[in-house]
Amino acid sequence: MQPLVSIIVPTYKGCDNICMAINSALDQTYSNIEIIVVDDNGDGTEEQIKTEKKLMKYINSKQIRYIKHKKNINGSAARNTGVRVSKGQYIAFLDDDDYMFKDKIEKQVVCFEKLDRCYGMVICSGYVVKSSGIGYKLDIVTHDILYNLLCGKLRFNSSMMMIRRNSFENIDGFDESFKRHQDWEFCARLLSQNKAKIVPEYLVVKYLLDRNVPKDPNQAVEYRMYFLEKNRNIIQRFGNEKEKKIISFHYRDLALNFLLAKDIRSAYFWLCKAGIPFVQFIELFIYSLKRKTVHREKYAFSLNELKDDYYAKD
After folding, report:
1. Can you give the C-alpha Rg of the chain in angstroms?
2. Residue 192 in contact with residue 146, Cβ under 8 Å?
3. HEC profile of the chain
4. Between helices 46-60 and 18-26, what is the axis angle to 10°?
5. 247 Cβ contact list (under 8 Å, min separation 6)
6. Which of 72, 84, 277, 283 is nearest to 168 (CA)?
7. Which residues of 42-61 are buried (b: 16+ CB within 10 A; e: fewer)?
8. What is the full per-residue pLDDT of the chain (314 aa) written as tens digits?
9. How far apart are CA 171 and CA 85, in angstroms?
10. CA–CA distances in Å: residue 58 to residues 36, 45, 146, 308, 314
11. Residue 189: half-sphere exposure toward Cβ, Cα within 13 Å
């Protein structure tokens, strides 16, 4: 018998696109799934009412289980709520503005079933695109996954992961104190205790809507420093040389935020903290150049093509 997979869909101010996400989960080639939507808008709020109305056809047909938080907490809490009420041996997450290709769950389960229990996570590759569908491939490296994750050479989000339930429970799930970088922090803790396997296929579309990205670089500093402090013990395990490279990346990234905000003085401050300013600026320039010159194509449907009226189930 196929193991049950629980797909947890946290939502906050996402009613415009959530049917796209739900339909992509319902359209999976793997049949033994349960879909749990956790609404973090706050019961009775305008956004919660609009979201529930959008999802009513799925609720009435029992295609999904819909849970409302009494008040807005955060995405980490919504994911934990979903896992607590789920029954799956494997846990998959799907953000309310992301899209899974039809064989995403099947390929990750097939991979998991070949692994021993020291593997707690299976990660797929995906596309990162704007609402137009234009974007780039997000390739996942297959070596030194935790180190590359911490120093910014590897990026993936929760929609690309599948977690063994025991592994999730052993680290007590997501840290609900995080308002930003929840995926990063969760993966760092999980990968510090478990192995991960990469499924190289591109199985997820991550739409860049920037709904929750902090516009104030000082707020970004607060979030990033909290992330580094909470992961200090994990980072220090790599030894002095790698620890310095990890910290330098994060400080350079903060410098980039201030450069984009045209705050040159603060950008220079964070470059100095990262190391020799000239060397760090060159590193930052190369990093930014790679981001600007990455090959961009139409890799996915535009959001308009995937609106619920267009992609609705019979």
Report:
1. 20
2. yes
3. CCCCEEEEEEECCCCCCHHHHHHHHHCCCCCCEEEEEEECCCCCCHHHHHHHHHHHHHHHCCCCEEEECCCCCCHHHHHHHHHHHCCCCEEEECCCCEEECCCHHHHHHHHHCCCCCCEEEEEEEEEEECCCCEEEEECCCCCCHHHHHHCCCCCCCHHHEEEEHHHHHHCCCCCCCCCCCHHHHHHHHHHCCCEEEEEEEEEEEEECCCCCCCCCHHHHHHHHHHHHHHCHHHHHCCCHHHHHHHHHHHHHHHHHHHHHCCCHHHHHHHHHHHCCHHHHHHHHHHHHHHHHHCCCEECCCCCHHHCCCCCCCC
4. 20
5. 228, 235, 274
6. 84
7. beeeebbeebbebbeebeee
8. 899 999 999 999 999 999 999 999 999 999 999 999 999 999 999 999 999 999 999 999 999 999 999 999 999 999 999 999 999 999 999 999 999 999 999 999 999 999 999 999 999 999 988 888 888 888 777 788 999 999 988 888 899 999 999 999 999 999 999 988 899 999 999 999 999 999 989 999 998 876 656 678 999 999 999 999 999 999 999 999 999 999 999 999 999 999 989 999 999 999 999 999 888 888 888 877 776 666 678 877 777 776 554 444 44
9. 17
10. 11, 20, 38, 12, 11
11. 19
Tokens coding 218? 């000082």
Alpha-carbon gap, residue 41 to 56, rounded angstroms: 16
Number of Cβ within 10 Å of residue 4's Cβ equals 15
- Two tokens, residue 287: 């990093």
Q: Residue 213 corresponds to which tokens in the numbers above?
A: 């990205």
Q: Which of 169, 160, 180, 152 is nearest to 246 (CA)?
A: 152
Confidence at residue 213, expressed as pLDDT on a 0 to 100 scale: 61
Cβ atoms within 10 Å of 73's Cβ, excluding its own: 16
* 246-266 b/e (C-beta count within 10 Å ≥ 16 → b): bbbbbbbbbbbbbbeeeeeeb
